[in-house]
Amino acid sequence: MQPNSFIGSPIFPAFILLPFSATASIMVSMSQSVILYRLQQIDSQLDESRSRWAAIETSLKDDAILRQADQNAHEAEAAFQTSQKALHRAEMAVHDQRIKIEQTEAALYGGKVRNPKELQDLQKDAASLKKYILVLEDNQLEAMMALEETETAHKNAQAALLETIAHLAEHNSGLKGELTNIQKAIERLEVERQATLSAISPEILSLYEQLRQQRRGIAVARLQDKSCAACGSTLTPAMAQTAHTSQQLIRCPSCGRILYAG
Ligand SMILES: [Zn+2]
Questions:
Q1: What pLDDT, in 10s, does the model give residues 14-49?
Q2: For residues 142 and 148, what is the distance between their CA atoms, to the nearest angstrom?
Q3: Residue 252 Cα, ligand 1 centroid: separation in angstroms?
Q4: In a domain? residue 12
């Protein structure tokens, strides 16, 4: 039987035996169990669609990856700027030292200072200044290397940020497309559900909804090889026979779900 072929078909009167006991069965037409099974399929698809919808909504709101990439880029930029300032300070220190050396040597060789003691002191100063400029030049070299490193890290972090933005845009666009499809599917299923509901008696629908709540959304289970497909419980041969041949609505003796033998 095609999924929709029962819609609009005549519904036979249902005889209900409630409440449920392990051996209870409900006298209904065979078409009711077919319709109930179809309703279960529709509801399971709706559950799945809504669950996926919620997961996509959560995913679309989740910008943790973007925020992390943005933070990395900001930190890399800050480190790069710190390195630039450190290099500038190191360059200035070397520059100042060179001026001191030039001034000391100008005094030493300018001819204005003639006192031997003063000249000796100036010579010592010049030697000391020249010795220390080597340390300052080393510092400058290290600062240049550090700057190269932070500059590369900054460029990489910027590229990673742009890549993350592009990837997220593509990913989210795909998710939004999926949302549109899910919305259409839900609308389609809702229409079919309404049509199906009109063919189910209120008592059986109430039982169905109750079982849906109690049994993690599955109220109707297939009968597979004399077993309940939902809980695996095996029916007695007599019950299995009844499920296949009669118009009685059979419920699993273990989990209470309505069994569909089609
Ligand atoms: Zn069962």
A1: 333 344 443 344 444 447 888 999 999 999 999 999
A2: 10
A3: 5
A4: no
Residue 2 domain-assigned (yes or no): no
- C-alpha of residue 217 to centroid of ligand 1, in Å: 13
Enter the DSSP assignment of 112.
Answer: S
Q: What is the domain extent for residue 222?
A: 25-60+201-260
| Statement to judge: residues 173 and 76 lie in one domain | yes
Q: What does pTM read for this prediction?
A: 0.72
Using the mean position of ligand 1's atoms as its centre, give its distance from the Cα of residue 215 in Å.
10
In the numeric block, the tokens 């020249």 are attached to 130
Report the C-alpha gap between 28 and 219 in whole angstroms.
16
Neighbours of ion ligand 1 (CB under 5 A): 228, 230-231, 233, 252, 254-255
Is there a single domain that holds both residue 121 and residue 206?
no
Amino acid at 148: E
- Specify if 196 maps to a domain: no
CA of 62 to the centre of ligand 1 (A): 39
Query: Does residue 91 share a domain with residue 53?
Result: no
CATH of the domain at 158: 1.10.287.1700
* Distance from the alpha carbon of residue 224 to the mean position of ligand 1, in angstroms: 11
- Alpha-carbon dihedral angle through residues 33, 35, 36, 39, given to the nearest 10 degrees: 160
How many structural domains are present in the chain?
2
How many angstroms does the Cα of residue 193 sit away from the middle of ligand 1? 24
Three-state SS annotation for 51-111: HHHHHHHHHHHCCHHHHHHHHHHHHHHHHHHHHHHHHHHHHHHHHHHHHHHHHHHHHHHCC
Distance 49 CA to ligand 1 centre (A): 25
Q: Which CATH number does the domain housing residue 35 bear? A: 1.10.287.1490
Looking at the fold, whether 79 and 54 belong to one and the same domain comes out as: no
- Of 1-5, 74-78, 152-156, 198-202, the one with minimum mean pLDDT is 1-5
